[in-house]
Specification:
Strand order of the largest sheet: 2-1-5-4-3
Shape: elongated
Strand content: 15-25%
Low-confidence stretches: 1-18, 553-561
Structural class: alpha+beta
Number of helices: 14
Amino acid sequence: MKLSDIEATGSAVASMMKSIKGQIVFFTVFLVLLTICSSWYLSSKAFQNSLINQAFEEQSLTLENIEKSIAMLNRSEVIRFLIQKNFANSDRISLYDLTGKIIWDSKPEEAKIEYLSGSADFQRALKEPLVFDSIYNKAKRTYLTHMLKKISLSDEELIVVLSRSLNLLTSVKGGLNLYFFLLMLSLSFFAVLLSHFIIRKILTPLEELSGVASKLAEGKEARFSLIGPPEISNLARTLREMAENLQNTLKLLNQQRNNLKQLIDYLPAGVILIDSEGKILYLNKSTIDMLDMAQGDYINKLFIGVIGLPKLIELYDELKERSEAESTIEVTNHNKRFLNCKAKRLEKGYLFLITDTTDQKQMEIARRNFIADASHEFQTPLTVIKAATEILACNPDMEASEREKLLQKIAEQQDRLSKLVDDLLYLAKLESQQMTITKGERETVDIVSILKDLASEYKGYPQARHIEWKVDIPFSCATIEASYDAIKKALGNIIDNAVKYTQQKFKDQKGGLICISLDENKNFWHVSISDNGVGVPSNMTEDIFARFKRGSFKTGYREKSAGYGLGLAIAKNIIEGHGGIIELKSPINPTTFLVSLPKLRKKD
């Protein structure tokens, strides 16, 4: 045979083994051979164990008789005794001293003068009452058993060794090997014939089903043939129904998976799913944003290697002992944020849910600060009122001018308290929706008139006497549907802030400038109010309209807060309650607020 023919034959055989036909032939023959080999192994093993157990019982009895007979003898008497007595015709008896040196052997032609001190069995015999072992001697091609026991004589201790050659086991095993080899050849031949019969009856229809399935996998239309044995036709019918259901189910699952992924991706909460090995299975965009992580693909990466926050790693370790855990995390990479993380151990992994609680935390801090500051602000006018009242009570003959000054102080402090209380109540009503401005409470309001009135009013304030005003209102009328008092209060709060912070920067010097302008587009009137005062701090630009948020300015070495942080919050609620928008367009140089209010719709 040529080399090319050998290669072609090998290639054909390999191709057949890869096919179902080749696998059926292979596994049929394999199972037959496995059964025969298992039977051969169990039979030979059972026969071997039987002979070894028999040898163990006989040698144990022999050693017991020897021990009883030589217990009171010395070494020389023992040797003479063993020569005279025949304890076991098939056993070889050897005597060793405790150093492993042979003293006497019943079959010297097989003995070797050697030391056994390094033998594992000999060392065991020095410690254990009886040692028995069986080995295969390759040189003699037979199985050997030997038993070792330490026996005490009248003058010393010896190691008695009994050895036996299991020639019967060797011969029987040879016969079993030949018998099972012939049986294996004959049954393998019948196994090949049986496998070919199965192939012809079953696999031909299955090949047709395989071809149809391949077409379906390629997305082509295919028909299942129902011709063949009942089992095959029923299988074809079932596969056809399964194929149809599978296609519909896959479409539905893909749609649901995409919808769920989009939903989780756009959740405002961070979601992390980890498998039992600590690798990330899913991580949404909110998590990356909250933890200030670099944009990238984190799937199948180790959670500990990706997440750099120690508290999150501690939470992960805690889940190995508990089913649920929760922790508050502070992130200070760019902007200081507070995160609440809830973690739960699943059947095959871990789930982390992260929510941003920065607003609540900051609101809580601002509320505490406001309560402390408001308490102080309440205390200051009350102290002034109390002191002035006590002076008046203790000095009934006080001059009229002095009395007038004290009364004026009392009135000013009372006004201050009233304004603070009014603002608090007004904001509380707005936020609790107890002061909803309904359509029936609204009227046609002219913004031009309100702006001019406010500008004229604030120009007359003592703290605005050195401030320059620029009012640019090119319209004679700008009407909206609103509550007159509410809109005036909202715009007045913004102008009041402009006066306050401009005066704090320039004090009694000139240079302050407040600009009020009015513009329009198709749907809105735009009111712009700007000043060149101290400006809005960079850490307040995002939440300038929140409650209790207020600017501060330095007086010498101290930083002093201005106002109560309620004016812009009230303005925001009013403006948005009228369908408008209020924005901080510029925090400094100049500080500019833009108010957009919807125009009055003309009736048809």
